[in-house]
Amino acid sequence: MNYIRTILAIIMLNLSGFAVAEENNDDPEFRTQILSNGSYYFGKGEKELSLKYFYYGVTNWTNPEQRADLIVACRKLFIGYYLHGKHVEYEPKLNNCPKEYMNILYGRVDREAIPILKYGPTLPKKAIELDLDGYVIVSYLVSSRGKVKKVSVVEASDEMFVKSSIKAAKKFVYLPAVNNGKAVTSGPLKNKFVFNLQDSGNNQDRQ
To answer: What keywords were assigned to this record (predicted)?
Structure first.
């Protein structure tokens, strides 16, 4: 499927309430666009519309060659449900997802902490005035409830970027680590924040 056909298929999907010709699902470009649209609307705060795209993938991409995209759709749909506190209630909606992968997400097997939502830092006003890029590396623990705590700075290109980085890190959301069937505190983990004046997406939340 070429680019124009992909766009037309997406438009038809939107207009028809997420029903398109089955052969479109065999095209990698179409599946990529579905996932991109879901992530785009998630970042825009239109969570309900975002989940419709991911649910479309979960319910339609069942062939072996579609498995990689199916797993991405499963992960993102689970995260959407989790953030709304509906992941247990809506587990039947994820029945098409690989069981071994869902066991990890639902914490039925031991796992490391899994990031599910990260926020970019806000560019400091001074950095904009000075036309200055930079970075900060932070270290932190993830609690048994998936919250970030004990944030510390490992390295920073300039002090002006530190406050914004710590604030962003504290808003991260994780699936907590699981050990012997129990959620546990884990870490320390590290994250590098890059401040780039050309990047307009610093303040978007990301799945």
So the answer is: Signal
